[in-house]
Amino acid sequence: MAPFVVRSAPGISPSLYKALYRVHTADRHGLNGPHAQQHALARLAAMDPSRVRLPDTDDGRRLRTALQANRNHHAKP
Fold first, then answer.
1. In whole angstroms, how large is the CA radius of gyration of the chain?
2. Distance between CA 13 and CA 51 in Å, rounded?
3. Which partner for 55 in 6, 47, 60, 66 could form a disulfide, CB atoms 3.0-4.6 Å apart?
4. Which residue range forms the structural domain that includes residue 23?
5. DSSP characters for 19-77?
């Protein structure tokens, strides 16, 4: 995630950047307790990894795989 939250990377959608930044901030700073992190992860999981714009790089492909795993994890009952 680091290459995408340090600064807005070329080829990444603004909505995905914001969602990643919220997860990063909630995790790093512990803002608003554990609920903020859960909410940020849920918002990220709501995004469809096959539809978000990511660069066609190794980092972009790894991020897409991680987003899919996060979405699958949150989809479990």
1. 12
2. 10
3. 60
4. 2-75
5. HHHHHHHHHHH-TTHHHHHHHHHHHHHTS-TTTS---SSHHHHHHHHHHHHHHHHHH--
54: closest CA among 36, 69, 3?
3
**Chain-centre distance for alpha carbon 51:** 13
How many domains does the chain divide into? 1
Look at residue 28 in the predicted model and tell me its pLDDT: 72
For residues 1 and 17, what is the distance between their CA atoms, to the nearest angstrom? 10
Q: What is the pLDDT of residue 14?
A: 86
